[in-house]
Structure formats: C-alpha cells, structure tokens
Amino acid sequence: MSQSSATDVPEVTINSMGTKEVEFDNLEGYEYVVVGSGAGGGPLAANLAHKGHKVLLLEAGDDQGSNLNQQVPAFHFRSTEDENMRWDYFVKHSQMRLSRERTRK
User: Which residue has better confidence, 24 or 56?
Assistant: First the structure.
C-alpha cells in the first residue's frame, strides 16, 4: 500500500451561510471508510491502518487540535464543558426498561 499524501485529505470550506462543506477530490483507493472515532471506530480504523489498509476515518465537528482542552489529557474534565467541543446530547432512559429491572425475579 502506498503512503497517503496531503492531496488525499478532504478540503473543508465554509459557505456564505456559515455551513461547512467538505469536498473529497479523491476517494479512490480507500479500502475502508469508518464513520466516528468513538470506542469502536477509532480502534477499528487504527488496527486496519496498522495492517496496511488505506482507511478514511470521518469524524463530526471541526478541528480542535489547537485547543488546550484537546491537547492536554489532564484537561479531559474541562473538554466536556468546553462549548467548542461538547455536543449537548442527553440520555433519556426508557421507563419500560427501568420497570422490567424492578420486576425481575
């Protein structure tokens, strides 16, 4: 497999409405496309790449690489409260599931 180059990286622009647009000039040659670098996606993409496969890993959000809350592992607690990094999704637990757990024999 050949090494990836800077030309393989998608180009991100912001249109007049402030919405990000991503252009993929060259998607040829990717053997795997992994969506999301969460608990499963990140390790999967890394393991495939280590085995020599050409992998495209897509992730939501913008680049926070220069944000200290992203750079410093000890700042993880701060990153969850950082407006630039948090997603503001909340969990609503199913009442049916809780009811089943209470009536388990």
Answer: 56
